[in-house]
Design a protein that fits this description.
CATH class of the largest domain in chain B: Alpha Beta
Largest interface: A-B, 75 and 75 residues
Number of strands of chain A: 4
Shape of chain A: elongated
Shape of chain B: rod-shaped
CATH topology of the largest domain in chain A: Multidrug efflux transporter AcrB transmembrane fold
Radius of gyration of chain B: 33 Å
Distance between the termini of chain A: 34 Å
Order of helices and strands of chain A: HHEHEEHEHHHHHH
Strand content of chain A: 5-15%
Distance between the termini of chain B: 26 Å
Number of helices of chain A: 10
Oligomer: heterodimer
Order of helices and strands of chain B: HHEHEHEEHEHEEEEEHEEEHEHEHHH
Largest sheet of chain B: 4 strands, antiparallel
CATH topology of the largest domain in chain B: Gyrase A, domain 2
Number of domains of chain A: 2
Helix content of chain B: 55-70%
Structural class of chain B: alpha+beta
Structural class of chain A: alpha+beta
CATH architecture of the largest domain in chain A: Up-down Bundle
């Protein structure tokens, strides 16, 4: 079976539209991100407590909110898991989950038939969260430098820089969409972002590899045509690799449970955007860079 | 000619055998992370300012104490590590009673014997806020009928201790005369002498037994006590007494420790995570396998075989490296499935292109593998860079994800290229194939 063959799309001719689209989404998302402030981050990045409780019978989230509200422990949030209203995630200020557990224990003592279970619990002190944030940023920067160096050796600096820029684009895009969807960034999102970086650069490199081969073979200076051909030649692979990977992540998203929810959601967005940037952004940057300073690509 | 095919099959069979041997039986060979089997993960920080060297020494000593305590608790495969200058990481997979474990790790367990002032006037003055020099007000803590601790019974107590937990040779749970659990202390030889002198010089005064700044009991000294034995009573449950005996035996922490990170995963949540994670990964793998077969026919089956082998190698290397499989790790495996077939897609698409140029099946296949190689190696190495950095710089579950991703990529280069080529070459030679359907 062969579904995509002999395509001749003018991807690079539409690069202005792609630039505008990307900038619009990223700027809009970053504005929202800026306005949300601390709201953007999960407990492991700002410090705080998280409790995962399961009650034997259905309780409404409103009831739990009322209960915790009476404790006077500052800001908190209650989120029901699943449709049964038995399991809840309660987030609160650092060191306050003990009070919440104490309260429910006390309440339980009054009515012996109820028996809740603490399924999971975590508590992150603000000082710890600072070190986690630093580590995440450090890992990201080291990763970028590594990728930039490797690609400079294998291609040339402009290719490496364009691929690295595409990675930045994808990450900003994902963070922008998470902000717009009112989701919180936690350690698992960082792992997802780095995976997206790996996937997206993988995708970009496959296209760059074809462009490198075409530049060597044709010795042409008409990079728009050369690159457009290369993108079209690899299109079948780009689409099917993206689809198989998206299938898997899609299943993780729907069947992976709460623990993988935000992780797989970030991957889902990131793989789609990574594919888009490989096709519409990375090579377009090379073309425009060449227009600004017309040196031949030496690969 | 045929020998080089046998040689390649021998390598493949050896790898399969080694991996199967490494994995079997999986429940024992593959270490599961906290999120998959439940347990406790805490990070403690020395809460004491001072020179770097000093703080670092304190952390080293605290590490020893915590290790002794956990040994007494009997956890299988605990991880107790110093990180940086002043933090200690404790990982206790599969702990059944997380609250107790946290209590045992975090307690400073500084035990002191200190004299109580009997002067009622001084005590009331102190309660007004007028504490005399050399003394301090301390309370005992009691559970009320609602199960909440309250501070009661203020006592005016000398700051200078007569004796500390340093002199304890052994501690164990016992029962007092009215049948309540208590903790029996056996003092060291030196401690026994000190204790005998203190009791001899202070007959009819009260001697408070203080643990981490809380008065446990304050009995009146009736007579000189020789023999170096003492009891701590104080309305303990049997469990509390046993825990206290453990921490006293292991010794006090050299400084106060702050628990700056605490993660508890209950066993049910761990089981749910494992079933959900595996179900998702299995479904993902099935979809990918089906797609490859439908889209690339016989070559798709070949890629599917490579994929299965990839997962086998991944788990085998995890078992050999004693790596920890976490929930994001399972996601990493699922993602590897998606990306593992990518190398084969690259090769197959390239073979299709070569066939279109009119080459023979054999040279189309050879050219396809050869031309796809630069794209495969460059794209995999860049992804490997990201994976390795996650492994070395990440923590906890992120680290686990980086490990599975990295192993998956390296295995991928072997299975998707070396293994499939070996099989294709062998089929082409033995079956004398004229036309290739791909």
């Amino acid at each position: 079976m062969e579904l995509i063959k002999n395509t001749h799309f003018d991807f690079l001719g539409k690069r202005k539209i792609a630039y505008v689209f990307s900038c619009a989404v990223i700027i809009w998302g970053m504005v929202v991100f800026g306005m949300r402030g601390k709201e953007n981050f999960g407990v492991d990045f700002v410090g705080g407590d998280m409790l995962n409780l399961e009650f034997p019978a259905a309780v409404s989230a409103a009831e739990i909110r009322g209960d915790i509200g009476s404790l006077d422990i500052g800001a908190y949030s209650v989120q029901a898991l699943g449709t049964e209203e038995k399991e809840f995630i309660i987030k609160s200020a650092p060191g306050t989950s003990v009070k919440i557990i104490g309260f429910f224990r006390e309440k339980e003592a009054a009515s012996p038939e109820k028996n809740f279970v603490i399924k999971g619990e975590s508590s992150v002190a603000p000082s710890m969260s600072v070190s986690l944030r630093k580590k995440a940023l450090y890992a990201f920067i080291v990763g970028m430098i590594g990728i930039l160096l490797y690609l400079t050796i294998r291609f040339e600096f402009r290719f490496a820089a364009a691929a690295t820029f595409a990675i930045f684009h994808d990450m900003l895009f994902v963070v922008a969409i998470l902000a717009l969807a009112r989701k919180q960034v936690d350690a698992s999102v960082i792992a997802a972002l780095l995976t997206i970086a790996g996937y997206s650069v993988n995708d970009t490199v496959v296209i760059f590899d074809r462009e490198r081969e075409a530049i060597r073979r044709t010795r042409s200076n008409d990079y728009v045509t050369v690159f457009n051909n290369s993108i079209n030649e690899t299109l079948s692979r780009t689409v099917f690799t993206a689809l198989t990977t998206l299938f898997v992540v899609f299943l993780l998203f729907f069947a992976g449970g709460e623990a993988l929810h935000i992780f797989s959601l970030s991957l889902l967005i990131g793989i789609a955007i990574g594919t888009y940037s490989s096709v519409f952004i990375a090579s377009a940057l090379l073309v425009d860079w060449h227009k600004l300073s017309p040196h031949k690509f030496k690969v | 000619m045929m020998r080089q095919y046998y040689y390649r099959f021998l390598v493949i069979l050896a790898v399969i055998a080694a991996c199967v041997y490494a994995i079997y039986p999986p429940e024992k060979k593959i270490r599961r992370g906290l999120d998959l089997q439940g347990g406790v993960h805490v990070v403690l920080e020395v809460k004491e300012a001072g020179e770097e060297k000093q703080v670092s020494d304190l952390a080293d000593r605290a590490l020893e104490v915590i290790r002794n305590r956990i040994d007494a608790l009997g956890v299988t495969e605990p991880i107790i590590q110093k990180q940086g200058l002043n933090t200690i990481i404790v990982d206790l997979p599969g702990v059944q009673d997380p609250d107790k474990a946290i209590d045992i790790i975090g307690q400073t367990a500084l035990l002191e014997f200190r004299l109580v002032s009997d002067d009622q006037e001084m005590l009331s003055a102190a309660l007004q806020g007028n504490v005399p020099e050399g003394y301090q007000l301390l309370y005992s803590r009691e559970k009320d009928d609602r199960g909440i601790y309250r501070e009661t019974n203020p006592l005016l107590i000398k700051i200078e201790p007569e004796l500390t937990g340093q002199y304890i040779a052994d501690a164990y749970m016992g029962y007092d005369s009215s049948g309540f659990p208590d903790v029996n202390l056996v003092l060291s030889k030196e401690g026994g002498v000190v204790f005998e002198n203190v009791t001899a010089n202070n007959v009819n005064r009260r001697l408070a037994i203080i643990l981490d700044g809380v008065v446990k009991s304050a009995p009146t000294i009736r007579e000189r006590i020789g023999g170096g034995k003492a009891q701590i009573t104080g309305r303990f449950s049997a469990d509390e007494a046993r825990t206290l005996a453990i921490v006293l035996r292991a010794g006090a922490l050299p400084a106060k420790m702050d628990m700056i990170y605490r993660e508890v995963v209950g066993p049910t949540l761990g089981r749910e995570n494992i079933t959900q994670g595996f179900r998702a990964a299995m479904c993902g793998a099935i979809v990918v396998v089906a797609f490859m077969f439908i889209y690339y026919a016989a070559f798709g089956l070949l890629a599917d075989f490579a994929l299965a082998l990839n997962i086998l190698i991944l788990l085998g290397v995890m078992a050999i490296m004693r790596g920890v499989l976490t929930l994001p790790g399972i996601a990493g495996i699922a993602l590897t499935c998606g990306m593992a077939v990518d190398a084969n897609i690259l090769i197959f698409e390239r073979i299709r292109e070569e066939i279109k140029t009119g080459k023979s099946p054999k040279s189309s296949i050879d050219a396809g593998y050869k031309r796809a190689w630069s794209a495969i190696i460059d794209s995999n190495i860049t992804t490997l860079i990201a994976g390795l950095i996650l492994f070395f710089l990440g923590e906890g579950s992120v680290k686990g994800f980086g490990l599975t991703l990295s192993i998956g990529i390296v295995a991928n280069l072997f299975t998707a290229v070396f293994v499939t080529k070996a099989i294709v070459d062998w089929v082409m030679v033995t079956q004398k194939i004229e036309k290739v359907r791909i």
